[in-house]
């Protein structure tokens, strides 16, 4: 069981009423707290929770509408996302107990200060390298529309500036990361047909490709509901149309693709996790049509080339710079 869940269960008597668990892990916590309901934005966690606890967790970017006696927020990696979650939940649940739980190395002590606008936070527990904080929502904030927290910026491209809209918690929120910047410079000679932006984040690659190759079908896929919402905003801001999906990795992608583009993730929360990318490299051939191409950017220190060659075929380094490499391989 997740150590944060273990800390909650040490104080189980506090959590017997109608409880909202925000950003909960995919463990047995819902089984141990029968009156609890989850709110999740990670498609993999949601699928696991739905399989074990049907209809007890809601997927998406908005607070569930039902009534709750208390809420627990599992500390996310992003301070901006923590702010949104705290304010969104406090606005919906004035006067109730709001809890924040997280790992010490994830910054829980500092994040607890973000509860101060609602009342006086107090630390309830300190165990399993985690802390549990509580505040009574005495000063409920006004409800804030998530889109009002979006950050927009422009990316200069040959076809003209591309407007990118990102929401709290999305990778590289409010700015263009160096890996994507390098890949944007090397989108030439992509195959025609159906292209996938894997791990689409705020939708930079998918939107850029759709604008440069308007007759191609573009699908954008991410595990995170906030990323998918950002990608839809980016497409709308540029007058573009593409399919945006949420799903847990390449297994959720369509078949018969002519190209897969990716600046793949390797962090989940405060932990490093290469599984989604390595699974992409192992299974890309299954999702690509014959002659289909994989083109991805990754930190130079990540040894992806041998894995690509093992599962797809000859892999060339198309470009290199700023500590990143672009790999290119075709399905034979």
From TrEMBL:
It comes from the Bacteria. Pfam families: MTS, MTS_N. Residues 162-328 form the Methyltransferase small domain. The keyword S-adenosyl-L-methionine applies. Its main location: cytoplasm. The keyword Mitochondrion does not apply. One of its GO terms (cellular component) is cytoplasm. Residues 5-151 form the Methyltransferase small N-terminal domain. It is an enzyme of class 2 (transferase). One of its GO terms (molecular function) is 16S rRNA (guanine(1207)-N(2))-methyltransferase activity. It catalyses: guanosine(1207) in 16S rRNA + S-adenosyl-L-methionine = N(2)-methylguanosine(1207) in 16S rRNA + S-adenosyl-L-homocysteine + H(+). Specifically methylates the guanine in position 1207 of 16S rRNA in the 30S particle. HAMAP family: 16SrRNA_methyltr_C. Belongs to the methyltransferase superfamily. RsmC family. Monomer. This is Ribosomal RNA small subunit methyltransferase C. It comes from Pseudomonas fildesensis. The gene is rsmC.
């Amino acid at each position: 069981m997740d150590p944060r869940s273990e800390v909650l269960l040490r104080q189980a008597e506090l959590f017997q009423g109608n409880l909202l668990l925000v950003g909960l892990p995919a463990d047995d916590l819902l089984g141990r707290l029968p009156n609890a309901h989850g709110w999740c934005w990670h498609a993999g966690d949601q699928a696991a929770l739905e399989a074990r606890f049907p209809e007890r967790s809601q997927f998406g970017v908005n607070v569930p509408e039902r009534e709750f006696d208390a809420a627990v927020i599992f500390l996310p990696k992003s301070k901006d996302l923590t702010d949104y979650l705290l304010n969104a939940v406090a606005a919906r649940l004035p006067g109730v107990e709001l809890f924040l739980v997280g790992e010490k190395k994830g910054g829980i002590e500092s994040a607890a200060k973000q509860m101060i606008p609602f009342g006086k936070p107090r630390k309830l527990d300190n165990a399993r390298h985690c802390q549990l904080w509580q505040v009574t929502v005495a000063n409920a904030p006004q409800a804030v529309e998530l889109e009002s927290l979006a950050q927009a910026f422009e990316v200069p491209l040959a076809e003209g500036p591309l407007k990118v809209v990102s929401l709290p918690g999305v990778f590289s929120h409010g700015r263009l990361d160096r890996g994507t910047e390098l890949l944007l410079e090397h989108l030439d000679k992509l195959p025609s047909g159906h292209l996938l932006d894997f791990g689409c984040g705020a939708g930079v690659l998918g939107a850029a490709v759709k604008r440069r190759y308007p007759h191609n079908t573009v699908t954008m896929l991410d595990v995170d509901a906030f990323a998918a919402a950002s990608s839809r905003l980016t497409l709308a801001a540029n007058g573009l149309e593409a399919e945006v999906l949420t799903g847990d990795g390449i297994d959720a992608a369509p078949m018969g693709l002519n190209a897969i583009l990716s600046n793949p993730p390797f962090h989940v929360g405060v932990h490093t996790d290469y599984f989604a990318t390595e699974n992409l490299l192992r299974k890309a051939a299954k999702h690509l049509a014959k002659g289909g191409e994989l083109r991805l950017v990754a930190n130079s220190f990540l040894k992806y080339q041998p894995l690509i060659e093992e599962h797809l075929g000859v892999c060339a380094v198309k470009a290199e710079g700023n500590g990143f490499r672009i790999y290119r391989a075709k399905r034979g």
